[in-house]
Write a structure and sequence with these properties.
Elements lengths: L1 H28 L6 H16 L7 E2 L10 H10 L4 H26 L4 H9 L6 H9 L2 H16 L6 H17 L2 H21 L4 H22 L22 H13 L12 H25 L6 H23 L13 H16 L3 H28 L8 H10 L4 E5 H10 L5 E5 L12 E2 L1 H4 L6 E6 L15 E4 L3 E5 L5
Parallel strand pairs: 2-3, 2-5
Antiparallel strand pairs: 1-4, 5-7, 6-7
Helix pairs in contact: 1-4, 1-5, 2-3, 2-17, 3-4, 4-5, 4-7, 5-14, 6-7, 7-8, 7-9, 8-10, 9-10, 9-13, 11-13, 12-14, 12-15, 14-15, 16-17
């Protein structure tokens, strides 16, 4: 027992270090990785703080209405550091890491993973691949959804006996439904199917099915409120586009969707022993094989699993299967990032496999953990090295443009989407940038920005930022006499509307 406590303390130290290292990295190096898509969350949080709102009709949301989302954590960061957005993002991510590890702890505890649970929590903080790092551990967007899923599953796989746990389930279920349908696809749909399988297997009604149905019902209520009460807010509604989908399915659609899932673990399509990237792809292939084998082995060994472990296995199996089918059907709207929210659950699956397969054989268990940890460390090194050398989505040269604009006193201007919002975040909100669709006009693009940017113009002397990596020869605002800044990436046009 004393040895187990000592090991737990060692893993807890590893977890604390992981949280601190990720937070410090976001704070110190985050400005090199700022991406306009991620910056929308910061801009929304700042706008809601400024207007003292929960949601607003004066903002163009993106893929869904942000009612219960990461902006609440960023709002805390911006409240503490309103003029230093890199610190505000760091605070928000630190809070999210705590929520994430707390939810993962509850799931591992309820699955009775013992020491393997602490290993699972520690390893989940490593940036195993670009998408997991960028969209979860750095950007936070999919980590928030993963945290919701983990907490909901953790609550449901064991009988809920305390009122405050029911309260948490109520808040998470309805709250996530107010955002839209995403949590129904990720979590509640698979939970209900798994609950039905569990009921058939046990040949009797059970708490797992009942709690899954209650959670799904509450989530559906939130979705209906989103659909019929919040319908006049500005956001993209997937359900309204169902009739436009091409429902024909080809074998290559399945191949692409599930290939995207395994690419999250390092596979990049080229295997080679002569380069780090090639070795990383080989490790990714091994991870893919290991994940598939873990699913098969645990289904074969169901009799050795306790009820919460069986229910977790059923849930995650159907989550992968059902979401894969959904992604195939909605292929016109699908991209590989949709899988990112499932990555933390893979670590729980692997931990459960190691626990059952080794059967407390300490040397064998240690061998699995050491090999996987080394592989994760190597892939994480490749991810961070790649990100520092060639940022995934960040626009090179934007930081220098930001410095110039601030030095010259510009407060408002125009840029296309992939530069506009990142510029606003880099300037800590000091530069309010109108996101435009192209350079042919200066009309605001109704996506991820204030509604005033669509129906109003800047009130101060503005600039137009031209990205040389985009086609700008068709702009009527290009005037060599009005160029005030130019480098290999960008051109700044002064007061473009005064021609």
């Amino acid at each position: 027992m004393q040895q187990l406590i000592t090991k737990e303390k060692r893993y807890i130290l590893w977890i604390i270090i992981g949280i601190l290292v990720n937070t410090i990295f976001v704070c110190v190096y985050g400005s090199r990785m700022v991406d306009s898509d991620m910056s929308v969350e910061m801009i929304l949080a700042d706008f809601l703080n400024e207007t003292h709102s929960i949601i607003s009709k004066d903002f163009f949301y993106t893929t869904e209405l942000r009612v219960f989302n990461i902006q609440w954590l960023f709002r805390i960061g911006l409240f503490l550091f309103p003029n230093q957005w890199y610190l505000a993002r760091s605070v928000g991510m630190f809070l999210l890491y705590l929520c994430f590890i707390g939810s993962l702890y509850l799931l591992c505890k309820n699955c009775e993973l013992k020491e393997m649970g602490y290993w699972c929590m520690a390893i989940s903080l490593w940036p195993i691949g670009t998408l997991y790092w960028f969209l979860s551990l750095y950007g936070g967007y999919y980590l928030f959804y993963a945290t919701l899923s983990i907490m909901i599953v953790a609550l449901i796989i064991k009988p809920i006996q305390k009122w405050w746990m029911w309260l948490i389930l109520f808040i998470l279920s309805i709250g996530s439904g107010l955002n839209g349908v995403k949590q129904m696809f990720l979590t509640f749909g698979p939970l209900v199917v798994a609950g039905m399988i569990s009921s058939i297997r046990e040949k009797t009604g059970n708490d797992f099915l009942l709690q899954s149905l209650i959670g799904a019902l509450l989530n559906a209520i939130g979705i209906l409120i989103n659909k019929f009460v919040f319908h006049d807010y500005h956001f993209y509604q997937y359900l309204n586009q169902m009739d436009e989908m091409d429902l024909s399915i080809q074998p290559q659609d399945f191949r692409k969707v599930f290939k995207d899932f395994f690419e999250l673990f390092g596979y990049e399509g080229r295997i080679s022993f002569s380069s780090f990237d090639g070795i990383g792809s080989l490790i990714g292939i091994c991870f893919g094989i290991f994940i598939v084998f873990s699913f098969i082995y645990l289904w074969m060994k169901q009799k050795e699993l306790n009820p919460p472990q069986k229910d977790f296995l059923s849930y995650f199996s159907f989550a992968i299967l059902l979401d894969g089918i959904i992604f195939v059907v909605m292929k016109e709207f699908y991209n590989g990032t949709f899988w990112v929210g499932h990555v933390p659950m893979v670590w729980v699956l692997m931990s459960l496999f190691i626990l059952i397969y080794t059967k407390d054989k300490v040397p064998l268990e240690r061998m699995f953990k050491v090999i996987i940890s080394i592989a994760v460390f190597f892939l994480s090194y490749l991810t961070i090295h790649q990100e520092l050398q060639y940022p995934f989505r960040a626009k090179k040269g934007l930081y220098e443009v930001k410095n110039y604009l601030l030095e010259r006193g510009y407060q408002e201007g125009y840029a296309t989407f992939w530069s506009a919002h990142a510029l606003t975040e880099l300037s800590s909100g000091k530069i309010d940038t109108w996101a435009i669709d192209d350079y042919e006009s200066l009309d605001g693009y109704p996506w991820g920005q204030k509604a005033s940017h669509v129906n109003q113009k800047p009130t101060t002397r503005a600039f137009l930022l031209l990205d040389k990596r985009e086609e700008y020869s068709n702009t009527p605002y290009y005037d060599i006499q009005k160029i005030v800044y130019e480098d290999e990436y960008y051109i700044v046009i002064d007061n473009p509307e005064n021609r």
